[in-house]
Specification:
By secondary structure, the protein is an alpha+beta fold. The chain contains twelve helices and 24 strands. It is globular.
Length: 525
């Protein structure tokens, strides 16, 4: 085998928001990476539209929260509106919970922004090498690492990179997943769709009744940027290959009063909506994340955000193994923690998609019937449609990286997918509470394990260990929220999930070190 041209701890495949987030996270951990992306530039299409509360918490950790929020729409755009055309009145609507208004369960608020606005910010968050126009075409693993074969799409030149691990975030049609022979489970392709990016003078309407998404009976309309720009999205018509233009589809969704406005079509993209979860998230030293691991329908805005949560879960584990304070078995916890989330996300997004299609179809049928636009509307809709905090913040992990709380059963998600109830138990996300000023309990987490306790001195480590660790005093007013006594403590993982809890300090002086050893797989020194 030829000698590789480069040697790197982690090769990231895919330069979308998930791969770029992984690159930024691993940079914070001091892990060298190389990212390869087969396209020659970042995507010019808006694609994902919603950055939810949990992703904004991750971006806050990366120092990007304010940057992302400043370039996004104002909070009142965190709403969807159903109407016959853009011109008509709402016949159903829903606020995006955690986006339209702040929620007390988080230090941040989600935002409506386009993926082509988000990706450059993520790109700038790390100076690690990135190679556009380079496609991965082969993988060969041995006992010590993986050799990846790469091809420059312009010159055709082939190079090789040797990596300790490969993080594959190369999308729903993942080359890496195919090379590993990993199958998928789920409905599969849900149909072909088309996105038409256009300019039109519609800001007056948007300003009076703001929304991030207008679901009309003739396709979906979305404002793209605070300063202007729009997109139409709908099923790809049968005559797509021979169409002279797309103005008619856009105009129908805009409505007759906007007929004279004119839509200046800038870009058209055809794509397939996929719905599946990979049968495995790992093949040896190669780990799948984002759409490579789970492709879900766009309705509800959960897909990209689930991918960001994937790498937030995975990158600290990779860093621990590569830096020596965690054993390789810690990576075995990635799939059992994230696959149940992916399966639930798939279930909910498929249900969301069916609901939206049913609403649009039934309304279109009403418009075509004798009743017309004035017909009474009886549709399967609820204002709580976008109330997704139970799924977004209520994720609870069950793996060897979580220590059972007093022999308790495996943790369950803190909510039904709709409502979120903060739970200070192992496996759950650390509940948000303000420590001092604008510093949250979640801000105490970082490139280290955190011990949150009313009495930090009592929890000073008694013996040495390799683990990055910080002690943080928990104010008295938050003891009840965390269900702790005066000498109790929470051990919080770098990703903000609770690894262990002690309501009071055990008699065993080495209890903290033994917990860290159990979570990371590295024994006490």
């Amino acid at each position: 085998m030829p000698v590789p041209d480069d040697d790197v701890p982690v090769l990231i495949v895919g330069g979308g928001p998930v791969g770029l987030t992984a690159r930024a996270l691993l940079r914070r951990w001091g892990v060298r990476t190389v990212l390869v992306e087969k396209h020659r530039e970042l995507s010019p299409f808006p694609r994902s539209r919603l950055v939810n509360v949990r992703s904004m918490e991750v971006f806050r950790h990366l120092g990007l929260g304010a940057v992302v929020a400043d370039a996004a729409f104002a909070p009142e755009y965190g709403r969807i509106r159903f109407r016959d055309t853009l011109h008509d009145r709402d016949f159903a609507t829903a606020a995006m919970v955690g986006v339209h208004d702040p929620v007390p369960e988080s230090p941040v608020t989600g935002v409506v922004t386009s993926q082509d606005r988000l990706e450059p910010m993520l790109l700038a968050a790390s100076d690690a090498p990135l190679r556009f126009g380079v496609e991965l075409v082969g993988l060969a693993e041995d006992a010590d690492g993986v050799v990846a074969r790469l091809v420059d799409r312009d010159s055709g030149a082939e190079t090789q990179v040797r990596a300790r691990y490969v993080l594959a975030a190369d999308g729903a049609h993942s080359t890496v997943r195919d090379l590993l022979g990993i199958g998928v489970t789920g409905p599969g392709e849900l149909g072909g769709f088309t996105t038409v990016v256009f300019d039109a003078d519609l800001d007056g309407r948007r300003g009076r009744e703001p929304a991030g998404v207008y679901l009309t009976a003739h396709g979906t309309l979305m404002p793209l940027y605070p300063e202007g720009g729009w997109a139409w999205l709908g099923p790809t018509p049968e005559d797509a290959a021979t169409r002279d233009g797309w103005d008619d589809l856009v105009s129908r969704a805009l409505g007759r009063p906007f007929a004279d406005v004119g839509a200046d079509v800038l870009r058209v993209q055809h794509w397939v909506m996929n719905a599946f979860v990979a049968d495995r998230f790992r093949g040896g030293r190669v780990l799948l994340a984002g759409d490579a691991a789970h492709a879900v329908p766009i309705i509800g805005g959960l897909g990209m955000n689930a991918g960001v949560a994937d790498v937030h879960n995975l990158c600290w584990k990779l860093a621990g193994v590569l830096h020596g304070w965690a054993g390789p078995r810690l990576l075995d916890t990635y799939e059992p923690e994230r696959m149940p989330v992916a399966l639930e996300t798939l279930r909910q997004t498929v249900a969301n998609t069916k609901l939206v299609v049913e609403v649009q179809t039934r309304r279109r049928e009403q418009l075509e019937a004798d009743g017309g636009a004035d017909a009474p509307i009886d549709l399967p809709w609820t204002e709580r449609y976008f109330a997704q905090l139970g799924l977004v913040l209520g994720v609870a992990y069950d793996s060897d990286a979580v220590l059972a709380d007093g022999g308790a059963a495996a943790p369950e998600r803190s909510g039904d997918g709709t409502d979120y109830i903060p739970v200070p138990e192992p496996g759950h996300r650390m509940p948000h509470a303000w420590l001092t000023g604008y510093r949250s309990t979640l801000d105490a987490c970082g490139e280290w394990f955190t011990v949150l306790t009313p009495d930090p001195k009592r929890w000073e480590p008694r013996s040495g260990g390799p683990w990055p660790l910080r002690l943080e005093r928990l104010p008295e007013e938050h003891m009840a929220l965390c269900r702790l006594g005066w000498t109790g403590a929470l051990l919080v993982r770098p990703d903000g999930h609770i690894a262990a809890r002690w309501t009071d300090r055990p008699a065993d002086d080495g209890v903290l070190e033994h917990a860290l050893a159990a979570v990371t797989g590295v024994p006490v020194g």
